[in-house]
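#help-structures
NK: newbie question, is this the right format to request a structure? protein is Apolipoprotein N-acyltransferase
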Amino acid sequence: MDETNNLKTAKPISPRSAAAAALASVFLLWLSGPPLGWWPLAMVALVPWLTLIAQPSAITRTGYLAIWAASTLYWLFVLQGLRHAHPAMYICWVALAGYLGIYHVAFVGLSRRSLRTRLGGRSLPIAVVVPVVWVATECVRNYLLTGISVAMLGHAVANVPLMIQIADLGGTYLVGMVIVCVNVSMAMMWLRFRGQEHQQSASLAIAISLSALIGTIGYGVVRRQTPTGDPLATFALLQRDEAVVYEQSADREIEIFQNYARQSVAAVQSSSRPIDIVLWPESMFSGASPWMIMADDAKVPEQFYDIYPEARQDPSLFRRTVDDRIDYFQQRAQQLQWMSTPTNQPSGPPNAADAANAANAASDEPATTNQIEPAGDEPKVGDAEDSRSVVALSPPAILAGCGVVEYDDSVGSYSAVVHIDSDGKVVDWYGKNHLVMFGEYVPIAPWIPGLRSLIPPGMGLRTGAGGKAMQIGDTIVAPNICIETAVERVAVNQLRELAAEGTMPDVIATVTNDGWFDDSSVIEHHLRCAQLVAVACRRPIVSAANNGPTAWIDSNGSIVKRLPIGANETLIATPRRDNRSSVYVQIGAIPAWICVLLTAATTIRRKPKQK
């Protein structure tokens, strides 16, 4: 009797059995990742699901619903930190978990359907089908509805260096595929032991998994033995535990800026080696005074006329006001740099107070609200060397997580990284490319009249125009913001485009504000994403985060140093140049999309022709 007849005559798998298998798999998956990180369990986590996939008996709709419910529960635990950001995020948290739960259902259903496809009169082997389908579901998840790469299977072994070096060949997809191969061999051995699977299927699965493991470890040994190059710029990575709320008052923004400014000054002054770049976390540099850009033909916002009716008779008032704000922003940066290295400024500090007075002449803010105040108790500097004070030859550059406001035919806001040189001048800026849906933008808002005015300020951000390569001394830095390391393709695609332009970055600098997520495991998941991105791009990553994760990751994905979550400290990092190329950067996710096409080809069946 063939498998088709078995499907028709065999008793369906009970919903209770499907639920038990699904709960077992998601529990093992959860144990393998943060917060516990028992990574060996990832090698068997899919086995309960695989026993369902391998059975010829049908899974009922109730059974699939049970699988979805178990998977949704898994994602609720994995992403529970999201609920801390805002009370409304409880709805988004549950909705996102329910959406992601669909992918495990798809994995089971599509794998079973592909196994029933015959090629040359034979069914496709489970040892080939299941890894391909798993990668296909992860690939679609990483693109559909803007995509999310958090908690991919490969992230379970982020702290196993030999297992993740293949990410420069196929990204986290390839690491996960190897883990799936091991799971298939384990499942086949178990089913063979119970007499439910042929020896041939088990032998093939074992052969594939052993080959994949040996190849992965061998490649990892070779790659890790490759020496890196000279030291790059020295970064001071700032971290504080500053409480944040969705709509923050100007006074609170200024307070946060002051706290970070004091820490920045202390870090540069107390470091045992000269600091080249100070990296501020996402939005912490704004201090109620974002960087502003104005087009030559910028339209004056109606809100400006509401505050200053005289501007209708004096059109230049708006431009003068914006110019004053621009001057103030740079004067504030100069003051910060002067306070960091006072002995290098014999002429004294720039008069930021004058700039503040000019800027505030057209605002309701007191002129002195945003001055950098003297330090009190200084935070720690996470430097392995002693804390001898050094005098830098020039003030450090600043890569500041900061808001940017652009005036053209309308008013646009960006989440950005602003590059301020050692003279306090803004040289360049990078606007966040990958925004958080319903967190930073509403997809349909631009096309519905009147809807944009109803959206809170933080949810109407513009998308930046591609990646940036910022030259600071001899180091080329690629800035990256928040979720962009949690969507693997963002950094990979940006580096490919920059390399084509002849400006391949030496290091990726990530700024983020994970204070939204309290001290939950979301922070650790974010860090693991960055580790795999470092290997995938073969570039070191330095990350400055409010609350964490603040870390220095080398180009092999290993954490060189990191700060404890919630610590008010500064990490000093000097990453090293890595001239190795990455196949994954060159070709991107093409192999993963091939898996999607293969899965589609084996699951979309033609109806047999009637005679």
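mod (FA): yep, format's fine, and the tokens are attached above. Residues 277 and 397 are 5 Å apart (CA to CA).
NK: thank you!
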